[in-house]
């Protein structure tokens, strides 16, 4: 739970966006949805949601789309990989840390202003899912057909070096692993900014409701008390007039007046 806190705080402070890609489907199906995620900025998060078990997310490259990046030049710099046994309902989140220029031809043809974005590639490392088309990319949509074609003829065993429990937090090329699905199931839910607003609105409504109930109760109590007071007055007057009437006929003072029946109901002031 605590390790998730920085993610939500970062997302709130830096205005980083969290993008979602669902991972699921049968063997050989296009398991990533969306398969080609575009316009992901530096510091943005990409969360892979495993909707079914039996799939993985492994970082690959443009030229070798079905091979885990074990060494990216610098010592210890290797790609990200989710655990091989990621359970359905768990998530795997990476954060884009580096930006690089898009293919210069693409930039000059389609974008008058050069945009500097990251191209990150990933594939499902389970069995032959990658060769069957389970590849995808972040800011790499212009490479979609070449990567898909290269995957079909790719060597098997390209994922032999993927650790079965996934790569460590912080690992990745151009990105870093932020949360990894623990092999135990349900991950704690994260509060999005929308959820915070929702909670605030519900709290406000509850407060207004409580205030209305309190007001209603006060009005009812006041009316009831006023009603009781008039009733008590009416009874007293009635009793007094009876006493007066009795005094007029007998000419004798009435013995001590027994308190009226309703006297016990007289509220204390
Ligand atoms: C992915 O999972 C997260 C966390 O459980 C959830 O908030 C999000 O809505 C899910 N997104 C999709 C597209 O399923
Ligand atoms: C996976 O297991 C290895 C060896 O037990 C350990 O060194 C590594 O930190 C583990 N990785 C994760 C992501 O838990
Ligand atoms: C990306 O940026 C980090 C620092 O933010 C740096 O350590 C790393 O070497 C950079 N390059 C790649 C390819 O990840």
How are the secondary structure elements laid out?
Layout: H1 5-13, E1 18-23, E2 32-33, E3 36-37, E4 45-50, E5 58-60, E6 91-96, E7 100-101, H2 104-110, E8 116-117, E9 120-123, E10 135-138, H3 144-152, E11 175-179, H4 193-250
The protein binds 2-acetamido-2-deoxy-beta-D-glucopyranose (NAG) (3 copies).
Please give a structural write-up.
The chain is α+β, with helices and mostly antiparallel strands and 269 residues long. It folds into 2 domains: 1-15 and 191-250; 17-184, Sandwich (Immunoglobulin-like). It is 31% helix and 16% strand. It has 4 helices and 11 strands, in the order αβββββββαβββαβα. The strands form 3 sheets. It has a 5-stranded mixed beta sheet, with no helix packed on it. A 4-stranded mixed beta sheet has the order 3-10-9-5, with helices on one face. It is rod-shaped, with a radius of gyration of 37 Å. Bound molecules: 2-acetamido-2-deoxy-beta-D-glucopyranose (NAG) (3 copies). One 2-acetamido-2-deoxy-beta-D-glucopyranose (NAG) is lined by residues 163, 165-166, 168, 180. The chain crosses the membrane at residues 195-214. Keywords: Membrane, Signal, Transmembrane, Transmembrane helix. This is Cupredoxin.
């Amino acid at each position: 739970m605590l390790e998730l806190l920085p993610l939500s705080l970062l997302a709130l402070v830096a205005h980083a966006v969290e993008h979602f890609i669902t991972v699921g489907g049968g063997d050989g199906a296009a398991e990533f949805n969306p398969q080609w995620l575009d316009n992901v900025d530096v510091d943005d998060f990409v969360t892979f949601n495993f909707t079914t078990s039996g799939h993985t997310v492994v970082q690959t490259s443009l030229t070798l789309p079905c091979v885990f990046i074990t060494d990216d030049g610098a010592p210890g710099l290797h790609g990200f990989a989710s655990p091989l046994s990621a359970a359905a309902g768990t998530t795997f989140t990476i954060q884009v840390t580096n930006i690089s220029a898009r293919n210069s031809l693409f930039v000059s043809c389609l974008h008058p202003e050069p945009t500097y974005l990251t191209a990150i590639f990933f594939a499902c490392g389970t069995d032959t899912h990658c060769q069957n088309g389970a590849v995808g990319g972040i800011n790499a949509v212009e490479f979609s057909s070449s990567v898909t074609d290269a995957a079909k003829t790719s060597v098997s065993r390209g994922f032999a070096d993927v650790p079965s429990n996934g790569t460590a937090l912080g690992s990745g090329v151009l990105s870093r692993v932020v949360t990894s699905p623990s092999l135990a199931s349900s991950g704690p839910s994260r509060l999005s900014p929308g959820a915070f607003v929702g909670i605030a609105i519900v709290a406000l409504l509850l407060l207004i409701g409580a205030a209305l109930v309190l007001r209603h109760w006060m009005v009812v109590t006041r009316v009831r008390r006023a009603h009781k007071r008039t009733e008590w007055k009416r009874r007293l007057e009635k009793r007094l007039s009876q006493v007066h009437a009795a005094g007029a006929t007998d000419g004798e003072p009435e013995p001590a007046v027994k308190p009226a029946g309703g006297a016990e109901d007289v509220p204390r002031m």
